[in-house]
Write a structure and sequence with these properties.
- This protein is an alpha+beta fold and 385 residues long.
- 30% of the residues lie in helices and 22% in strands.
- It has eight helices and 18 strands.
- Strand 14 and strand 15 form a beta hairpin.
- The chain is globular.
Length: 385
Amino acid sequence: MSSETFLKIKLSVFWLFYFKKNILLFSMAGNSLGHLFRITTFGESHGPGIGVVIDGCPAGMEMDTDFIRTELHRRRPGQSRLVTQRTENENFTFLSGVFEGKTTGAPITIFIPNEDQRSKDYDHLKGKYRPSHANYTYHMKYGHYDYTGGGRSSARETAARVAAGAVAKLVLKKYAIDIFAFVAQVGDIRVENADSVDYKLIETNNVRCPDPSIAAQIEDLILQIRKKGDTIGGMISCHILNCPVGLGEPVFDKLQAELGKAMLSINAVKGFEIGSGFSSVTMKGSEHNDVFYNNKGKIQTLTNHSGGIQGGISNGMPITFNVAFKPVSTIMQAQSSVSHSGDTTIVEGRGRHDACVVPRAVPIVEAMAAIVIVDYLLMARAYKS
């Protein structure tokens, strides 16, 4: 090989990596998730509406609009006295990808109009940074941001995720895979045995907790916190049932890594643990190991400390994980902060906000789990085809 040819190859590789690096640098905005089943959300909290584009959904699938509407209503504001009283009917429209009630294989675009914005509730926040809110980091990164409702950082964006998750759940129904999330803890009040609950009781109370007595205590606590103009955090547990063996990739694309990414992308999430999670640090290997046995021709484990995933790949046992949510940053109390010019100022929340997000976040956790599982299910099918 001549030195001239070698130099041309070297320059070609340099420019390839240069342009790839800079294209990613300037174009990657973090609005998409997934590989084969890929979603991209759009819209702002106080804009005309929000929505999602779903790419990779199998063609010919019946689109159950009533089911999608039910899922959106589980997340919507104004559904009980515990949550923000913003009233959104969550009407939605298919802009593409669905014809005569069936998916066409083209990208599915779902649009959800915003019907009850009150941007004036945020006028007093113009030029000020809310403590622990995203508006400071957004302003520093982009130089300009939507202070009314938080724009893209608002939990309003998650309605688009729930719509996409509902479509993903419709795919999972074909494989008899079920996903159940529920409130396991708020403040110091928690369900004692979250690994064994009656899923039928989740939707029987405002809190979405499968233990009625604990649910009543949690509801009282949230109402007390709301009266004080404060907020409180909580934890959601999620169980994925009947997941086949073999979903997930070794090393960087482990199934739990993608689930963790999906959960940590949800507003207010501060922690994710799968299986035994952080409690595993106190256990010995002899206690933690999940012993295999043959259950009528099906290999299972006596315990499930692994949370249904080993080596980054599903093992056929229930996939179990917990998601921790921080208290909402906007509180109805005066707090010290700074203005855009760096001057000390006072910030106080106004308008309509949740005192605790976890009751409404249950369908969001389920939706994100469904999106990840469908994506890996389609990848597993692609390997076998």
